Amino acid sequence: MTEKVEITVNGEPTTADVEPRLLLAHYLRDVVGLKATNIGCDTTSCGACTVLLDGESVKSCTVLAVQADQQSVTTMEGLSPDPERLHPVAAAFRAEHGLQCGFCTPGMVMATVGLLSENPSPTEREVREGLEGNLCRCTGYHNIVRAVLAAAGRDPQEAEDKPAELAAPGFSTGSSE
Length: 177
Ligand code: FES
Ligand code: FES
Known about the structure:
By secondary structure, the protein is α+β, with helices and mostly antiparallel strands. The protein has two domains: 3-77, Roll (Ubiquitin-like (UB roll)), CATH 3.10.20.30; 88-166, DNA polymerase, domain 1. It is built from six helices and five strands; from the N terminus they run E-E-H-E-E-E-H-H-H-H-H. It has a five-stranded mixed β-sheet, sandwiched between helices. The longest helix is centred in the middle third of the chain and has 14 residues, at 105-118. Mean pLDDT is 91; it is low at 164-169 and 172-177. The chain binds FE2/S2 (inorganic) cluster (2 copies). One FE2/S2 (inorganic) cluster binds next to loops.
């Protein structure tokens, strides 16, 4: 049995007959063909699949495609369709070296866009708390925090020399795992 869904993705209408169990993450990657939305776990814990659903950041592996019917999704591709004109958040990640392998980056950037839409000028602590659902295996998070602060128009130096106990659980190690 399949159900028809109509989902606007990055401003373009998409439609398909899908199984009710199909995850939005798989809809985006396998039906629409947008591969920036990564899948890094099967426990809804890594955040690599984060997209905006009607403007709010969600882990697309926790949403069924049928639940997104008649809604709008923005992925990393939609945020910066022109590589020469990066979205300010993506530009800040590049400027502050907020990535290494890049696997977590689309999810981090989309989560940051969601965070800044709710809190346009977060403190260093609020950045760490706001992104605690997004994991990175490479960076130790420090430059990611700098990038988010920079994207918010704050001084990235606010991320400097913070003791580990100020960091939120799951976003706190400050070292490679
Ligand atoms: S793939 Fe969605 S949280 Fe890891
Ligand atoms: S840059 Fe490699 S997982 Fe974050």
